[in-house]
TrEMBL record:
Keywords tagged on the record: Monooxygenase, Oxidoreductase
Keyword Manganese assigned: no
Coiled-coil regions, chain positions: none
Presence of keyword Electron transport: no
Species: Piscinibacter koreensis
GO MF entries: FAD binding; monooxygenase activity
Origin: domain of life: Bacteria
Cited InterPro entries: FAD-bd, FAD/NAD-bd_sf, Ubi_Hdrlase_CS, UbiH/COQ6_monooxygenase
Record domain FAD-binding: where: 137-326
Name of the protein in question: FAD-dependent monooxygenase
């Protein structure tokens, strides 16, 4: 089949947009299928924790440097507390000998800068229609229609939890410290971000059982903040809501196959994980980097849709994705047990890990490099 374009990218989330830009930069012609944005669609209130590899990819696409001050905030320290509030696991960039542990980025700002870059991208056209192409890259997220059309099964296990996200302001400066509570039945993260109020704002990710999450979404602002203050015990000072609240159902899942003749899956269309470690998008952006490397290094005679070529990408990505899924799932299981014996054990575990510097270094390195 002769086609006018090389790659059709289906799905214009961060993974799809980054893939279109990255392919365009190596001279591949791309059509990016974007669903028309509803005028009344609210902005994403999430902020993402991005690792160094994701930052490098966005920098190579000229997106990172275009972010406004306040859209990206470095994390220098991270404090994880257990059920009793006393046992804590502390990570620092200084101990890890890196500049920062992660960056917290405004999700809507990253999308906006990707859109701007796409307007000037050579070889990339953006539209709503699907076009015949040598390769279709499916980046439509966990409920991908393209994946379903191909008949590819998605093994998904719901956690019976929802993650509530919102922006907060705080009475105390965040000092570049991420605060996390791992306990039963919730996992709560306050991620430092310099928007909307200088050095005193956080992005909230609060994972809770469905019924509890629904009750917190239905509560009025004052009721929600009172629950949040009780859950954080004032560790971040007085907190106030600075955005609407939004929630996402949580699951772990994986597509049975990630590629076939003329098609490939990336990002959440291929795999989803619990957000407790802030790694889902990092995995998706690592997929982008791997696929673009594989395509750039292909033999001159090899077609883009050749399944043997696409399997090189899957071989690179399957093991790290599997490891991250297992790690986040095991953490969730460990912390979702309510029994006192479990609570005692995991609190002791947190304390013990905190005292073993090489183990902490190893754990941090896994998160930084995944
Ligand atoms: C509360 C929460 C917090 C998180 N925090 C972090 C974090 O700190 N760090 C991190 O790395 N990850 C985090 N994640 C995970 C991250 O959000 C996802 O891994 C990431 O958004 C996946 O990107 P994607 O582009 O693959 O999919 P999506 O973001 O789901 O984007 C898919 C896009 O495709 C579009 N689409 C779907 N169907 C079609 C179609 N038929 N045609 C055209 N377009 C279509 C959709 O509208 C959407 O725009 C978090 C997740 C949640 C829920």
């Amino acid at each position: 089949m002769t086609t006018a374009i090389d790659v059709q990218v289906r799905g214009s989330g961060i993974v799809g947009k980054a893939l279109a830009l990255a392919l365009g930069r190596i001279g591949v012609t791309v059509a990016l299928q974007a669903e028309p944005r509803r005028a009344d669609a609210p902005e994403d209130v999430r902020a993402y924790a991005l690792n160094a590899a994701s930052v490098r990819l966005l920098a190579s696409l000229k997106v990172w440097d275009a972010l406004a001050p306040g859209d990206a905030t470095p994390v220098y320290d991270m404090r994880v507390r257990g059920d009793d509030g006393a046992s804590a696991l502390e990570f620092s960039a200084w101990q890890q000998r890196v500049g920062e542990l992660a960056w917290i980025v405004d999700a809507a700002a990253v999308e906006r800068e990707l859109d701007s870059a796409l307007r000037f991208a050579p070889h990339v056209s953006v539209g709503t229609a699907l076009q015949p192409a040598a390769l279709t890259a499916i980046c439509e997220g966990r409920a991908s229609a393209g994946r379903a059309e191909l008949g590819v099964a998605f093994d998904e296990h719901p956690y019976g939890q929802r993650a509530i996200a919102a922006r907060l302001t705080a009475s105390a400066p965040h000092a570049g410290t991420a605060l996390q509570w791992f306990r039963s039945p919730d996992v709560l993260a306050l991620l430092p971000i310099d928007k909307p109020r200088g050095g005193a704002s956080y992005a909230l990710v609060w994972s809770l059982p469905d019924a509890r999450a629904r009750a917190l979404l239905d509560a009025d602002d004052a009721g929600f903040v009172a629950e949040l203050m009780a859950a954080t015990g004032g560790a971040a000072g007085e907190l106030a809501l600075a955005s609407r609240r939004a929630a996402w159902p949580l699951s772990v899942g994986q597509a049975r196959s990630w590629c076939g003749p003329g098609w490939v899956l990336l990002g959440d269309a291929a795999h989803v994980i619990h957000p407790l470690a802030g790694q889902g998008l990092n995995l998706g952006l690592a997929d982008v980097a791997a696929l673009v490397d594989v395509i750039a290094a292909r033999e001159p005679w090899r077609r883009l849709g050749d399944e043997r070529l696409l399997r090189r990408y899957v071989r690179q990505r399957a093991a790290p994705t599997w490891a991250m899924q297992r790690t986040t799932d095991a953490l969730w299981r460990l912390f979702s047990h309510d029994a006192d014996a479990f609570k005692g054990l995991r609190n002791q575990g947190i304390g013990a890990v905190n005292r073993i510097t090489p183990l902490k270094r190893w754990l941090t390195a896994q998160a930084l490099n995944s």
